[in-house]
Amino acid sequence: MRQTVKRDRRRDLVQLLAREKASYRNTVVRTLYQVDLALLVRQMREDAGLSQEELATKTGTSQSMIGRLEDAEYTGHSLVMLERIAIACGMTLKIRAEKKPNFDREVALV
User: Fold this and answer.
1) Any idea what the CATH number is for the domain that residue 75 is in?
2) Residue 74 phi/psi, 5° resolution?
3) Is there a domain that residue 41 lies in?
4) Is residue 1 assigned to a domain?
5) Rounded Cα–Cα distance for residues 53 and 55 (Å)
6) 22-47 and 79-88 helices cross at what angle (nearest 10)?
7) 13-39, pLDDT tens digit by residue?
8) For the chain, how long is the longest CA-to-CA vector?
9) Which residues is 98 bridged to in the sheet?
10) Alpha carbon of 16 to those of 10, 24, 105: distances in Å?
């Protein structure tokens, strides 16, 4: 018989640390920005119907670089590269990427 999984204690610990320590809270916020940027790159590419290799060719970089930009742990995003990606995907980047009718994603670049 299967046992019910107990509540995830990691989430409780993260919330406790975020309340108690400003440095931890800042790290969590910074990590969320990184995740948002990685998702933004991937979503723009997928919405344009491009593979990583095709996007790399259009932006004049390598497929491995596109892969790194789509990695939530990568910290080297630049506004110039994000603009190149947006242009290659047929989008406008204003610290916000949008493509009507169904793509609208806002990201804090900090």
Assistant:
1) 1.10.260.40
2) -75, 135
3) yes
4) no
5) 5
6) 30
7) 677 776 777 777 777 777 888 888 999
8) 56
9) 92, 104
10) 10, 10, 29
